[in-house]
Amino acid sequence: MEKADSKSRILVEMKQVTKAYASRKKLFTRSSPQVLALNSIDLSIAKGEVFGLVGQSGSGKTTTGRLLVKLESPTAGEIFFNKTPISQLKGPGLKTYRSRVQMIFQDPYQSLNPHLSIAETVLEPLIVQKIGTPDTRTEKVVHTLDTVGLSPGEAFFNRYPHQLSGGQRQRVAIARAIVLEPQFIVADEPTSMLDATIAIQLFQLLEQIKETFGMTFLFITHNLAAARYMCDRIAVIHDGHIVEVNTADNIIRHPEHPYTKQLIKVQPGFKYTR
Amino acid sequence: MSLLSVDHLSIGYQTKNGMLKAVDNIHFDLEKGQSLGFVGESGCGKTTIGMALMGLLPENAVILDGHIRFQGDDLISLTETQWQTVRGAKIAMIFQAAMNALNPVMPVDEQIKEAIITHQPDISKTDLADRMKELFDLVDIPARRMKDYPHEYSGGMKQRAIIAMALACDPALIIADEPTTALDVIVQDQILREIKKVQEATRTGLVFISHDIAVVASVCERICVMYAGQIVETGTRKEVFKSPRHPYTRTLLNSYLSLDNLNDIRVPDMKESPDQTVDTDECRFAGSCAYARGCAGRSPDWIDISPTHKAFCCNPDVIRRGHGKS
User: Fold this and answer.
1) Which of A222, A265, A270 sits opposite B214 (nearest CB)?
2) What are phi and psi of B201, to 5 degrees?
3) Fewest Cβ atoms closer than 10 Å to its Cβ: which of A134, A156, A185, A264?
């Protein structure tokens, strides 16, 4: 791990980040009990790396993603992006940060606004960030749709999310995330709702995007096999703690933590048939 | 006599674009205590089969052809009143969304008791209590949690409660439609073991539906692979997974990420699935098939590989030439 870090520049770093959520207040008690979603985690992601975060539901993996795109703020600790702490970002600084960091959500049926056409969906980030002129924006949208495999892009312009399949919707969500050419993308279980044949094509697309734009990815999943296929390094998260970080191959071949071993054991495969 | 025998079953949905054939000429048999898995991607018709077996097809569905015989009776001709004596008592279902399948304002044990009392109104209080204890034991929920409300259960426990409910009346056939899809891998593993254990203990017939081939492989002895409303390959678990023959099965296995096949992964060139409102005898998979050679205009046929293993294809050479996960 140290080797990978020292060789390449660190893009994202989490230092002792803790996130606590207040659970429901009980009558007559003064302080509300807290649920620690993340318990002092340290993480660093190198530039150009695909970093996997693997854990079961409730382990804190989605919270990590939401903190990194600053949809939420940590209770303690600091997150650095290009060595700059992001907790103090406000106004224009935060807006710039949002153009550099984007997220792809799990459920393509819920993450797209049903009232916006595909063109409007992908155009919106450009308008918000005031990039280009109306003409160049349209061109950019067509080009981006082509990149994500929705080609010809023009044919999808006036279509709405309900007219697309799950795989196509997720491609729109990817187009929306990459249209600003961000440096860092958080992909939270991007294929867990999709069939295997569709999922593998999306993985291929994300890989192409990484090659083309040199983006850095945080890939959040509960599927170790998918993480191994996609990622350079994998961190295993359990109950708000990162229990193990290693290269993707090593974590599967030589797991050290008992929890990682359990995850590998329960991973569906064809072991029953062998 | 088979427990369940489905013969030339075709089911269509009335849509504004015409009749959409969701299930096209399907046949299979299931004996007592056996498990049969249906695998295929969304829209391939697997859930429609499950719903037809439960008599729960939506209103715009039409059974176009065929028979479903269960313990010798034809289920298709049953009236709704007759269905009520079958559904839950003889054929039960484990639903997909455990989170939503329980009534949130009723303790879990009451909901399961309700299922028993509906079918056995004369059951004595002690018999009912014994049965409840037996059921909770069977699915490994501690008896002290019986009276809890669903929100006090974890996702895995809810799914166990749903399994207990399905078993309540000791059915001869259980249909499980994506029972672990909403669960994470660790809980999924527990629930799959649970279903398998319970099925073996009670000698119930099991129809297991999932889009996840590895999940089907872990539970079922026999597998049917479906594509666009048709069964394209059927065989024992070992035959289908060790020696897949139909090009679609190969595509599916080649694109499935598991920890032991990473090097065999191939990204398929899948075209959009065919328009099922068009009635045709031609191969539905030809457009995406890597092996298609002059298949256009020809009708596929069943090709036997072994007494239990067969595939539905135009091209006997492709089917007979098995080379594992090609």
Assistant:
1) A270
2) -70, -35
3) A134
Asked whether residue B287 carries a pLDDT value surpassing 70, the answer given is yes
Distance CA A156, CA A150 (A): 7
Measured CA to CA in angstroms, residue B212 lies from A196, A197, A260, B131, B231 at distances of 8, 11, 22, 33, 16
Could you report the per-residue pLDDT of B161-194, keeping only the tens digit for each?
999 999 999 999 999 998 888 788 888 888 899 8
- Return the exposure string of A21-54: e unless at least 16 CB atoms fall within 10 Å of the residue's CB, then b: eeeeeeeeeeeeeeeebbbebebbbbebbbbbbb
If you classify domain B32-62+76-220 with CATH, what class do you get? alpha beta
Among chain A, residues having any CB pair with chain B shorter than 8 Å are 56-57, 165-166, 195-201, 203-204, 222-226, 228-229, 252, 262-273
Q: Which of B211, B217, B260 has its CB closest to that of A195?
A: B211
- DSSP element (H, E) containing A262: helix A258-266
Q: Are A60 and A238 in contact (CB under 8 A)?
A: no
Distance of residue B64 Cα from the nearest chain A Cα, in angstroms: 27
Q: For testing the chain B interface, which of A239, A270, A271, A274 should be mutated: the one with the most B CBs within 10 Å? A: A270
How many Cβ atoms are within 10 Å of B272's Cβ, its own excluded? 10
Q: Which residue has the higher pLDDT, B92 or A195?
A: B92
CATH assignment of A2-105+181-273?
A: 3.40.50.300
Q: Does B10 touch chain A (CB under 8 A)?
A: no
pLDDT for the residue numbered B264: 72
Residue B238: closest C-alpha in chain A = A273
Partner residue opposite B259 with nearest CB, options A196, A201, A264 = A264
Residues of A in contact with B155 (CB under 8 A): 57
Q: Average pLDDT by consecutive 10-residue portion of chain A (274 residues)? A: 58 95 70 82 95 90 93 94 91 93 90 94 94 93 94 90 91 95 94 87 93 94 91 95 95 94 85 45
> Using a CB-CB distance cutoff of 8 angstroms, which residues of chain B are in contact with residue A198?
41, 270
Q: Which of A164, A156, A179 is nearest to A109 (CA)?
A: A164
Contact (CB, 8 A) for B284 and B270: no
- Left (φ > 0), alpha (ψ -120 to 50) or beta: where does B39 sit? beta
Q: Quick count: other Cβ atoms within 10 Å of Cβ B42?
A: 15
pTM for this prediction: 0.86
Say whether the ipTM exceeds 0.90. no
Residue B180: φ, ψ to 5°: -120, 10
Report d(CA A169, CA A109) in Å as an integer: 7
Q: Find which of A192, A195, A238 to mutate to test the B interface (most B CBs within 10 Å of its CB).
A: A195
Please report the pLDDT score of residue A29 as a whole number.
66
**Where are the domains positioned within chain B?**
32-62+76-220
Q: Indicate the length of chain A as a whole number.
A: 274
Rounded Cα distance between A181 and A174, Å, is 11
Interchain CB contacts (distance < 8 Å): A and B: 99
Alpha helices by DSSP H, listed for chain B, are 46-54, 80-86, 98-101, 108-119, 125-138, 155-167, 185-202, 213-219, 237-242, 247-254, 316-320
Where exactly are the structural domains of chain A? Answer: 2-105+181-273
